[in-house]
Design brief:
Blueprint (H helix, E strand, L loop, with lengths): L3 H9 L21 H16 L4 H10 L12 H4 L14
This protein binds iron/sulfur cluster.
Length: 93
């Protein structure tokens, strides 16, 4: 019988970020300059852009209210964009 955990494991083993350093996908615990953050987020998004499990990754992050990091190619601010968000933000994934 499939469980929620086994479903999560199935997509995670195909993740393009698997084995990469988490510091690309998550901000440091200390302050991060805006230009450094923009560069880091672009590098993470480039990995996500070629990831075969981008949609389930994003669905997981939204469903579990992940507060930090790049998931499914979106930053925390982009994931939590409410009404009035840029058109197609989530539809393009
Ligand atoms: S979409 Fe990005 S963060 Fe999600 S599994 Fe793929 S590479 Fe990792």
């Amino acid at each position: 019988m499939a469980t929620a955990v086994s479903t999560e494991v199935r997509w995670q083993v195909r993740a393009a970020c698997r084995g990469r350093h988490a510091s690309v996908f998550f901000p440091p615990s200390s302050t991060e300059r805006s230009d450094v953050r923009a560069d880091r987020e672009q590098r993470a998004k480039a990995v996500c852009a070629r990831c075969p499990v981008r949609r389930p990754c994003l669905d997981f992050a939204v469903r579990t209210c992940e507060a930090h990091g790049i998931w499914g190619g979106l930053t925390e601010l982009e994931r939590h964009a409410g009404p009035g968000k840029p058109p197609g933000l989530l539809q393009d994934v």
